[in-house]
Amino acid sequence: MRAIIFLPLLGLGLTLGACGKSSDTPKTAEEVKAEVAKLDRPEPGKYRTTMKIIDVTIPGMPADRAAQMKNMFGTTGKSTEFCLTKADADKGFEELNKRAAQGDCSYDNFNASGGRIDAKMTCKTGRGMTMTYEMHGTFSSTGSKMSMKSDASMPGMPMKGMHIEAEVNNERIGDCS
After folding, report:
1. Which keywords does UniProt give here (predicted)?
2. Is the pTM of this model over 0.70?
């Protein structure tokens, strides 16, 4: 269950994370693709990603289990490190567009400019689940600080109304070895 809950949220954070104030106007995938193409590409190098879960709410889940899920990442968050190769950096943010195209997703709003991002995307799965992702924060070619929210609804299922809030920070910490 951990992968079902955290991977979509983390995936969105990592694809947008190295990517303003929103106009509440929906954008097409083509408009988002054009906006993303204007962004500076991330610099290659070694990065540290720290993810801290702020809130987990799953109706029907006992409070102690929700607290346990939140505490899996500790009070300061869980960090991982990875190497962003030049080849991956040269791709820029094309993964963002690929991921959105893989599902039935629409951008409720998307603005990434001036070192700030404000985005909301809604995706529908083949199982009747609807996921809404929101992201707000800052970015540069060497890192990002994001606040993210993920809400899921699935009629008739126990996870109806699932809500997760997280902070995800990415920072370039050096060259790859």
Report:
1. Signal
2. yes
